[in-house]
Amino acid sequence: MDNSIVLKSYGKINLGLDVLRRREDGYHEVRMIMQTVGLYDLLTMKKIKDDKIQMTCNLTFLPTDERNLVYKIEMTCNLSFLPTDERNLVYKAVKLIKDKYHIKDGVEINLSKRIPVAAGMAGGSSNCAAALKGMNQLFDLGLSIDELCEIGVTLGADVPYCIWGGTALSEGIGEKLSRVDAMPECYILIAKPGISVSTAFVYQNLNLSGLAKHPDIDGMLECLRTKDLKGICDRLENVLETVTIKEYPIIEEVKKHLMDQGAMGALMSGSGPTIFAIFQDKKTADNALKSLRSIEDIKQAYVVRPIR
């Protein structure tokens, strides 16, 4: 067994996000196409003798993964608001595994953040998924992916997907996953305005009966099957934009700006406020990213590739 491990915790975008209904328990049933992208946090986990969990969190300019992280802008970001105790999903995941499997050793954790926080990219869920995988590896528990997902869904609806990664159809409250055809090669520009959005607020204010239309998820699946990038971009849709854009018009402004810069399609990820845009070639994506320097409200921006 290793005494120390380092794991990459990748962010995600939603190529399509539909909400079908609100359940009696307050959760919403969704139908989403999820895609992992080459933007990651770094989770370092070390076994210690004392029976305790020690966690630190910081912003760091992580090494570039040249295969997936192509170009970046990173501006100031204060992470002092991120908890490092029972309120943090990583801490919760480690404690749950320690309790469930009667592990007496302690764990020292450092989380180096780059995925935008509270931004619709499942950063917290991805960190949680990495922590579960890390505990499985660190203590040689032998848990399967399905077993990790069963544990993960008790911590958050997006955690099972983050354990899977890649391209997937997500249904139910997010826990019902189906592997689908991988996204074709492309470049994805990710832009995070300097605002945070409450997921709870967005879902609470979503008017399902007032939606004019729903995303063409089935059509998107067919375009993924045939590697039709234009068809995928033509079908990018997220019903949560109907709430978030009304509150934060900057999201629509950035989408329009990126389309004017040659994007094939642009969309808000999750409940926002992160926007992503898809480009067929690197040069156009890089130029679009550089153009974002003129928009003061953009605090983080990257060009990445999809992770299969």
Description:
It contains 10 helices and 12 strands. By secondary structure, it is an alpha+beta fold. The strands form 2 sheets. Strands 1, 2, 3, 5, 6, 7 and 9 form a 7-stranded mixed sheet that branches. Strand 6 (167-172) and strand 7 (176-179) form a beta hairpin. Helix 1 packs parallel to helix 2 (123-138). 43% of the residues are buried. The model is unreliable at 62-78 (pLDDT under 50).
Write a compact overview of the structure shown.
The protein is 30% helix and 31% strand.
Radius of gyration: 19 Å
Order of helices and strands: EEEEHEHHHEEEHHHEHHEEHE
Sheet/helix structural class: alpha+beta
Find the count of extended strands (DSSP E, 2+ residues). 12
Portion of residues within helices = 25-40%
General shape: globular
Share of β-strand residues: 25-35%
Compile the SSE list and pairings.
Elements: E1 4-22, E2 28-48, E3 53-59, E4 69-74, H1 89-100, E5 106-113, H2 123-138, H3 145-152, H4 159-164, E6 167-172, E7 176-179, E8 187-193, H5 199-204, H6 217-225, H7 229-234, E9 237-238, H8 241-247, H9 250-260, E10 265-268, E11 275-279, H10 282-291, E12 298-304
Parallel strand pairs: 1-9, 3-5
Antiparallel strand pairs: 1-2, 2-5, 2-6, 4-12, 6-7, 8-11, 8-12, 10-11
